[in-house]
Design goal:
mainly alpha, Arp2/3 complex 21 kDa subunit ARPC3, globular
Amino acid sequence: MKQLLRTKNLAIIGMLIALDIIFTRFWMIQTPLIRISLGFFAIAMIGMLYGPVIAGIAAGISDILGWAMVPYAPFFPGFTLTAILSGVIFGYFLHKPHTTLRSYIFCALSVTVLCDTLLNTLWLSFLQNVPFVTLIVTRTIKIGIMFVLYVTVLPLICDKIKTLLKARII
């Protein structure tokens, strides 16, 4: 914990939270039912660097701060819970010295199935008063796109970050 509270680590976590907010709230594709963004990779990087607990906390902070900056709908804590869970999942699968393709695939499957498909669809079903099954069908394209992004973007970025860590640039 003492290592985590170093100024450098707090600055990195803060910058990645800011990056998550920018990508999730400003640089995304959004329709009434789906939102596609690259914000996940900032939380995944926190998970890779600092583990599941810190990634979960950072994802929760990012969700709340992002909502406070751009409140396009009333605050709903279910989405914050989903953000925390996704941070924990990213940290669990990516906070290892040697991450394999299998880890990236299981990470992508876990986040896609638990967070994107089940929980976020459940929250949208509650908020929009639309049957869960109807939303699942309409969100299938988004879920597929996000799975592909997780599986392709995560290995590329994680490998680059690990290279920078070995070179002691980060």
